[in-house]
Amino acid sequence: MAGTEEASVECPYCGEAITIVVDTSVDEQEYVEDCSVCCRPIEFTVTCADGEVSEIEAEKGG
Ligand SMILES: [Zn+2]
User: Fold this and answer.
1) Distance, CA 56 to ligand 1 centroid (Å)?
2) pLDDT tens digits, residue range 12-25?
């Protein structure tokens, strides 16, 4: 799908690599999504530039 990109991020709780889908049409976004491995809430801060993911931070949310 246009405007989205898959990115791999390390879970801050369990350290497993998880894949998230990022809407690259938004320059900066913050959202919480549960880890698919340990089910704990991860707070993502995603920065995009020119339709590509430039930075992803994964922090313990909640
Ligand atoms: Zn996890």
Assistant:
1) 16
2) 999 999 999 999 99
